Amino acid sequence: MPIDHARKTVAGTARALQKGARVMGRIVRRVEKAAGSAPGTLVHTGPHRVEQVRVRLLDYDAGDLHERTLERVQDSFPFAGEPTVTWVNVDGLHDIELIEAVGQELGLHRLVLEDILSTGQRPKVEEYGDHFFVVLKMVQFDVETESITSEQLSVVVGDRFVFSFQERPGDVFEPVRERLRHAKGRIRSRGCDYLAYALTDAIVDGYFHILEQMGDRIEDLEELAISDPSPTVMHRIHHLKREMLILRRAVWPVREVLGSLYRGEVPLVEEETRVFLRDAYDHAVQVIDTVETLRDVLSGAMDLYMSGVSNRMNEVMKVLTIIATIFIPLSFFAGLYGMNFEYMPELGVPWAYPALLAFMATVAGGMLWFFRGRGWI
Question: pTM score, two decimals?
């Protein structure tokens, strides 16, 4: 049994190390761009998450909307010059020629194209005169593995166009698309800056949903840390602490991005839109506060686990100590009468043996009564 327990412990430690290595791989991205390359060198540094790049177009104004899936991104360029709002969403970043064609058509700076292809960017906003560039992180939570997966979203916003670039299909923008399809609210009557706000606000709202899911699991871990402080609970706490670190890295800079947009540092953002951006900024601050709170709760859960393990160990040691204390005087009597001397008192008395057993039982019972009276057992 001890060997099996040791094997299980080693196996659990190995799995924990492997998980830690995978987490570090998500935090520290492998650099595929050669050191010393010229600024603006276009190299895709992330994994190929899709086989085929998909391009979706939404072109609208207050009275009409056109939605379609395009075979080539070039088919969307005529819409970008129309007096409507054109939203082009690209799923898949490994096609460098496609990204370069977008940059040439829209007049994007080479550094913008480089940042789109470099998926390890920190969330930020950059202003380039006739357009501005926003990088955010879309985050998803796998319920089964309790793991965070993040994806870079790059958004280029001009006067009449919004180009968004994702690493793979699937996002949190379907409510925005539904509002556009059914002309709900003011989104169809506003410009590209409002669409950029709507996309950003959808991402921030997605953070709340993930925090709610993680909060439920952290609450369950707190209860388990008290009632059943097993090694599995410790591994889950460590795992969620690492996942919270990844989530914090994704959401913390969003406050700076929204702050720059609503404070008027980007001229393309209209005054009416800044009011909504300020509300999104408040939401981002709430997300950050919640992340920090959950991290503190996880640290408290670890303290509870260590206290529970310590209390269990103390209970075990108390029982063993009481047993050892009771048997110390009994062992003394047994050793005393176990000596091989010829002349010892009571050796020839018939009732000496049961009398000694009764005396030893009385001593053990008296010690148990004393321990219970002191509240030790």
Answer: 0.77
